[in-house]
Amino acid sequence: MIVYSGLSYRREVFPWNFAKNNEEFVRITNSLRAIGGTTNTKKALEVAIDLMAQRNKTIPTLVMVVTDGRSADDPKVPAQRLQKEPQTWMFAAATGDPESVDKQELLDIAGTPSHVVLHRGREYAADVTRALFRQAQEKCRTTTTTTTTTTTTTTTTTTTTNPITGCELDLVLVLDFSTTTDPLVEYYKEMSQRLIRALRIGPHYTQVAVVTFATVGRTRTKFSLKKYKTQEEVLKAIGELRSTGGTTAIGEGIRIGTKQVEEREGARPGVATKVMIVFTDGWINRGPNPQAMAREAIAVGFELYTVSFVVG
């Protein structure tokens, strides 16, 4: 824990395991007093980077920054370093009047809007923060299995940590590349890339598949869930997509996207949350009934969302 103010004021740094139990943590935090002075979150995060070097990197780590978001020096660079730390999740929380908080700075610290806790009521914000921590701890814990192998001469016991973070997401993007969306294709690609940049991509986190549709015969799986392992690869592949033109078979796009539920495509049944996002202008003139296909996708476990973009 780091308690800080400005560069010229003292700060308190509590090392790892400074509290041995919940009661001790509450007692210490209740005894904290305001330091006074200006705000320099950048320096506090630099101290946090030093502390992170001392941690056990095999254990998931949550970093919660509580601030009004008005640092004298921009904290974005050290925040990004912390966001890239393995097994690390960044959160930013503020209380008080939301209008007086620098929301962009909080977003820079957390790295994603869903990790920013902002509310006018202090008690409510504290409740939300506690709930976030509980959910993150539950999701990101690892489980351990032990296997014992015995021969006539030796006994070997091997302990492995299951590669399950609880943060797995199988994301299927279904993009309308029919003739009616020609002016919108680049917007669909841009929105898809913005979404991917906000996610942690990898075999133990988010996997991405992309399906493009137009006429039934021109609906294609551009890449499956198992194809790419990094954010850079997914962004590049989306950027290289080209419109095919043709009629609009939304139902066929959903039907093909639903095939990503199969393990051979890279799906992780029982482990990953399944989400399908359909980008379309909604004009249907070919193919299977999209409502029926949507029901089938939901029946096999997909959360289904649609996105439209209006120009002008």
From TrEMBL:
SMART domains: VWA (SM00327)
Species per Swiss-Prot/TrEMBL record: Angiostrongylus costaricensis (Nematode worm)
Pfam families documented for this protein: VWA
Domain VWFA, first and last residues per copy: 1-136, 170-309
Protein name, per record: VWFA domain-containing protein
TM annotation in the entry: none
Source organism, top-level taxon: Eukaryota
